[in-house]
Amino acid sequence: MAPFKTLDDLPADARVLARLDLNSPIEEGRPRDNRRFTRHAATVRELAERGHPVVCLAHQGRPGNDDFVSLKGHAELLASHVGREVAFVADTHGAAAHEAIEALGPGEILLLENVRMSDDELPEADPETKAETEFVRSLAPYFDAYVNDAYSAAHRAHASLVGFPRVLPAYAGRVMEAEYEANTAIATREFDGQVTMIIGGTKATDVIDVMDALEGKVDRFLLGGVAGELFLRAAGYPVGHDLKWMDLFDDQWERTHETVETLLEERGDEIELAVDLAYEDETGDRTEIDVDDVEEKTTAYLDVGSATVDAYEPVIRDSAAVFLKGALGVFEDERFADGTVGVLETIADTDCFSVIGGGDTSRAIGLYGLDEGDFSHVSIAGGAYIRALTGEPLPAVEELQRDA
Ligand SMILES: Nc1ncnc2c1ncn2[C@@H]1O[C@H](COP(=O)(O)OP(=O)(O)OP(=O)(O)O)[C@@H](O)[C@H]1O
Ligand SMILES: O=C(O)[C@H](O)COP(=O)(O)O
Question: Which parts of the sequence bind (2R)-3-phosphoglycerate (predicted)?
Fold first, then answer.
């Protein structure tokens, strides 16, 4: 049985309130185009084509941050992906929002203002409390159904995510369905062969917790990125040098070294570390060094080296399932993309079940001309993906399940 109701269960003609996650990098006040728009556009298009009036909710940034902006630009970008007009009203739940909702006809789409501009949205609280906020109470009567498509925000107990499903019949959108299924696969599916997890990126503390939590679920871990260097440091190599303007290594080392040391000691045979690393030499070129030749902690390493990619390749080819979280290097700079692109190319070339996680990391697929169709699932979730992997509950998903 599906763990929640989906769009297949949605009554015809229902007036729909749909929560999307369009949270994006902001450039000159406007959202940078990314997978979240393409994916949610498909759900919104399906709803509009079926003749539902569709009112969308989404957030952007947090109050006080530079990326806390209006959703006007998001409405335009969403419209270009849906292929239909998306109206926008600069109001979250006041009179202007009510008027625009009432004027909406079948198949028409409206995006309301950044939900985090309402004081009721953010403070985390239990669903009953969120359902009693003015935001939820004033908007809910305009709708027959609530659709949550925002898997990537499902770890937040905010009003638009846990309040509405208490007062409206609640359904999972297509993105919610697909993300839930792929991201829980590591815990829920039995694979006929080796399960491998490739760990990288900058959020070492988070991914190390994932490694700890996945005992017995994953056979091999292949490491790179910041987490990889912390493991190398624990193994006695003088790596993990912080550039002056970044504090990626020392702070996370303080927080994680005990877990890292225990993991290496108790489950070292599951863990593969880089055998070489790449850095920028005096002339600005990429140079590689064997980890055994690193003498002092004075160089910032920005990628794993080519011998590491070669060593990881047969492990990936031998796997029935591969989950990736975080990049193996600073792939945004072409000189340091080889590690990330190398493992992605190998995964793409195999028939294994594969999930590519991490909003930043999945950008490498488009940047380096890989085909998204060569992976089982490319996730648009960051924090929610991590929480699903560590077995932490996702409050917004729990509300959908409760309503089912
Ligand atoms: N050795 C390294 N030094 C510095 N940055 C690195 C290194 N290796 C990888 N990165 C950076 O890691 C980033 C990707 O991982 P990160 O943990 O930030 O996010 P993610 O897992 O892709 O996604 P999300 O932000 O959605 O959680 C890339 O932007 C890449 O530049
Ligand atoms: O972008 C994300 O990861 C989600 O939209 C959650 O955003 P938040 O971390 O600002 O709550």
Answer: 36, 116, 156
